[in-house]
């Protein structure tokens, strides 16, 4: 089959690789019908995530048709049309039982590697390096999925792939980002970053009762889309963001601030396990994390900072004095996708959310290297690419 593989920093290629096989009786094979590139994939391409190995298949936002199931799979059937949440849940551990599926204790077969490199182990994640289990990703024609009964989520009749694909990640991520803002009716929410996550964060903030959303980015087409969703916007290249945010909120600052940026896209070093220390040093020596610092400094006293943006390694230049003395609350994490699926599927079916509106590019799997380039550099007005394998 064809698959998108990581061949080093800033090197993404389409290659012919062996078809996936059932390895455990709880596995299922999915024929991928739609897959997308995520801002988190850019961190892999940029070399911020240690333990990528040459030839690893990328992709954690994918859906398709079940073509084979293992002998212990009961609920999922061949022919089912499913979406595949990016964090893998075993369904049985303490974390899964408490709805914290991105922290599952049993789906990451390499917890010691994760603890050694990043200080903690979360759930397994498809196509996201060996510290999250080394699972092959879904930017491919077929994918092996694990704990199928606990993870594969049936798509109801009458919905297109594009309507439901983002349930695998960025729609729940924007929603959890907004939920973590602890929005009270009428609140002002600021969202740093108008990529796919920030845009779904804006839609979700309004759904959860925000009175106003102020969105910050530098790309005109992304700011334009934020305005179409009802946000007021600031361009951080031309506006004094802190001053404007204060002026717009009676001198106080927003009630909550979302960092939907994370590690900023940037060309890195050679990558791989051996480079983990260098990567960490690079992050420490750089002036990061801009967006998280900005979120803490911009938020009103006693407010909430929500961080769906992904960080890795040790990025410690956080203004902890302001954070503590302003009495802020911070909530963050990889998204517990499973717990939002019924709710958000309902919003899609009722038309409260139209996830397709953020798609700017529809390309073939063969065009993935180009798709990565335009998504990374925000060229050609790219906001979100969907690949058809
Ligand atoms: P993206 O790269 O398309 O969007 C990021 C946006 O932030 C860009 O538009 C960029 O111009 C803007 N930006 C950069 N620096 C900024 C700054 N200082 N102030 C304001 N805006 C700034 O990526 P995306 O797909 O929207 O993902 C955003 C983040 O969310 C990434 O870090 C990604 O890894 C993370 N993410 C997290 C989860 C999760 O489970 N928590 C899931 C998916 C994605
Ligand atoms: Zn993602």
TrEMBL record:
Q: Give every Alcohol dehydrogenase-like C-terminal domain span.
A: 196-264
PROSITE patterns assigned to the protein according to its UniProt record, in alphabetical order: ADH_ZINC (PS00059)
Instruction: Cite a single GO MF annotation.
Output: zinc ion binding
Report the family membership.
Belongs to the zinc-containing alcohol dehydrogenase family.
Q: Which UniProt keywords apply?
A: Membrane, Metal-binding, Oxidoreductase, Transmembrane, Transmembrane helix, Zinc
Q: What region holds the Alcohol dehydrogenase-like N-terminal domain?
A: 25-143
Cofactor(s) needed by this chain: Zn(2+)
Q: Known InterPro entries for this protein?
A: ADH-like_C, ADH-like_N, ADH_Zn_CS, GroES-like_sf, NAD(P)-bd_dom_sf
Kindly list the residue ranges recorded as spanning the membrane.
188-215
Q: What is this protein called?
A: Alcohol dehydrogenase
Organism placement in taxonomy: Bacteria, Thermotogati, Deinococcota, Deinococci, Deinococcales
């Amino acid at each position: 089959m064809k698959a998108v593989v990581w061949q080093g920093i800033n090197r993404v290629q389409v290659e012919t690789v062996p078809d996936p096989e059932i390895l455990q009786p709880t596995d299922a094979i999915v024929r991928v019908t739609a897959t997308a590139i995520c801002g988190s994939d850019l961190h892999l391409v940029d070399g911020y995530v240690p333990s990528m190995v040459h030839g690893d298949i990328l992709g954690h936002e994918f859906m398709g048709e079940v073509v084979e199931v293992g002998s212990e799979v009961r609920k999922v059937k061949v022919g089912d049309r499913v979406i595949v949440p990016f964090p893998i849940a075993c369904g049985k551990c303490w974390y899964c039982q408490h709805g914290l599926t991105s922290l599952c204790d049993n789906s990451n077969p390499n917890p010691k590697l994760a603890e050694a490199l990043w200080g903690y182990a979360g759930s397994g994640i498809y196509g996201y390096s060996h510290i999250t289990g080394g699972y092959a990703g879904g930017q491919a024609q077929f994918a092996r999925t694990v704990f199928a009964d606990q993870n594969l989520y049936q798509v109801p009749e009458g919905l297109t792939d594009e309507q439901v694909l983002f349930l695998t990640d960025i729609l729940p991520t924007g929603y959890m980002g907004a939920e973590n803002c602890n929005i009270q009716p009428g609140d002002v929410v600021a969202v740093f970053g108008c990529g796919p996550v920030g845009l779904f964060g804006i839609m979700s903030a309004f759904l959860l009762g925000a009175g106003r959303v102020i969105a910050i980015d530098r790309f005109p087409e992304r700011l334009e889309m934020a305005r179409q969703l009802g946000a007021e916007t600031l361009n951080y290249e031309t506006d004094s963001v802190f001053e404007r945010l204060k002026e717009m909120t009676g001198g106080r600052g927003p009630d909550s601030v979302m960092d939907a940026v994370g590690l900023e896209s940037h060309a890195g070093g050679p990558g791989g396990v051996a480079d983990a220390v260098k990567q960490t040093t690079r992050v420490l020596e750089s002036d990061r994390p801009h967006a998280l610092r900005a979120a803490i400094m911009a938020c009103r006293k006693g407010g909430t900072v929500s961080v769906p943006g992904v960080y890795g390694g040790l990025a410690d230049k956080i203004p902890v004095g302001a954070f503590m003395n302003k009495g802020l609350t911070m909530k963050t994490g990889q998204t517990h996708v499973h717990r939002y699926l019924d709710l958000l599927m309902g919003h899609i079916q009722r038309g409260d959310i139209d996830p397709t509106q953020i798609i700017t590019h529809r390309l073939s799997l063969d065009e993935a290297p180009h798709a990565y380039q335009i998504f990374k550099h925000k060229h050609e007005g790219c906001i979100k690419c969907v690949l058809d394998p």
